[in-house]
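Hey, I was hoping to borrow your eyes for a little while. There's a protein on my desk that I can't quite get my head around. The fold is given in discrete form, as structure tokens running alongside the sequence. I'd be grateful if you could look everything over and explain what you see. Here's the protein in full, and shout if anything looks odd to you:
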Amino acid sequence: MSPTLNHSESPLINIHEDGHVHTRLCNHATGEMEEYVEQAVQKGLARIVFLEHLETGIDYYPPSWLGDEEFTYYFQEGARLQERFAGLIEIQLGVELGFNPEATAVILEKLTQYPFARVGISCHFYRYKNIHLNLLSRRRQSLDQLAAIGTDKVISTYLHTLIEAVCSVPCNVLCHLDAVLRHLPGVRFTDEHVELIYQLLDAMHEHAVALEINTSGFDYRGKAFPVPWIIAAALQRGISLRAGSDAHRPSEVGRHFDRLPDLLNTAQHSQS
């Protein structure tokens, strides 16, 4: 077992499962599926969940998600790897579904076309006139346009979209809840945003949707997505937690999972 995972366990989360991994198939990550599995085995993980991107009705270039051809390969290669690594690690093939409220019917149809073992919900794009702006991009042009629209408005729309997604799409986990505008300095949640987050968590509890603790946040901002007070509010509602590295390179599989027990201990104590 890798030393990075040889730490005290937390009863709140399984740090031997990486539930959020991407590959070169999504057009903005690197590495083959097999390389990610090999890294997971080296780090002592018991399960790895590929959560490749699916977007519908999004006008954005270059595309940062898989098309039908890529998904066909995804499942073929995934089946080969499941056979090759049988007995060493469990491999699941899931999807990170970027919710577009204008394409709900198409989304539901897409979900019936593939045997996804896990469906993660996220929202990556904000509709502006006839185009879509990437809410998680570091592109200066996108950040400037989103700032000009108004960060409070953008964040409110983002949270309303996630609430609608959880209530209208069969899903298992909500990804990187507070990663919106992660590359825009000085972003803060207003009282309205906090209330929307509570509504989102209530909807997650009602629909049995888990909350992802996304450890990529340690690299982006020095703390995981979401922040401890959101984790504490989720725990108060009995929402399950899932660990995800959001790896976009093989070396990032299981990154910072050793920090999760302390993080959750802090969040748990902040409930009182």
